[in-house]
Amino acid sequence: SLGILYANFTEAMDLQVNSEEGKVEALAAFGNHNNNIYKKLTASISVVNGEILGLPGIEKFYNLSWLKSVRDELGKKNFCATIQKFLDVTLGIYLEQLKQISKCETLCLSGGVVANVIANLHVFEKKLFKDIYIVPPMADDGTSIGALALGARDQGLEINFTNNSDMPYWGPQISNQEIENELENFKNQVE
Fold it and tell me: What is the pLDDT of residues 117-140, one digit of tens each?
């Protein structure tokens, strides 16, 4: 999966998998992708009919010692920029195919990869979908919400209850005054 490949690069950076992928994303902004490794990545997967398939050659990207040697050769920033570009482009191709298959104008994203804000920006900039909703639980806990929505749709149930809400976050409402009061209470601790 795209998420596991990204996690492998995270681990090769000696970072915590499923926790510190954001650091890979941040470092990528300061680097330049390596075209040779990028081409090897793209040659190791295929996106066909809305499915991402591993091809021969993918196994090297699951080899931690090899990935660390690539990191050392490219430098950390360029190493991170390479996996970020791969994620951005591959996710774009995947969503283009899903759009063609589904003919949907609305996209709802959930799951671990959705925590990647830069990839989300590229999805938004492609303007493939009229509306994009990113489920607030950014980790895999968001997947269950997507499964629920698909199941409801398959059962013919109406799931437009979110149309009445101005924001996607459900929970207690906090006024601006409450926020200002708390900032005042902690003004010596906040810069």
Answer: 899 889 889 899 998 888 777 666
Name the nearest CA neighbour of 31 among 70, 76, 90: 76
d(CA 49, CA 163): 30
Phi-psi region of 57 (alpha: psi -120 to 50; beta: other; left: phi over 0): left
- Cα separation, 142 vs 150, in Å, equals 13
8 A C-beta contact, residue 65 and residue 12: no
Q: What are phi and psi of 35, to 5 degrees?
A: -65, -35
How many residues appear in the chain? 191
Question: Using H for helix, E for strand and C for coil, what is the string for the chain?
Answer: CHHHHHHHHHHHCCCCCCCCHHHHHHHHCCCCCCHHHHHHHHHCEEEECCEEEECCCHHHHHCHHHHHHHHHHHCHHHHHHHHHHHHHHHHHHHHHHHHHHHCCCEEEECCHHHHCHHHHHHHHHHCCCCEEEECCCCCHHHHHHHHHHHHHHHCCCCCHHHHHCCCCCCCCCCCHHHHHHHHHHCCCCCC
**Each residue's pLDDT tens digit, 21-56:** 999 999 999 999 999 999 999 999 999 988 888 888
Angle, in degrees to the nearest 10, between helices 64-74 and 2-12? 70
Q: For the full predicted model, state whether its pTM sits above 0.85.
A: no
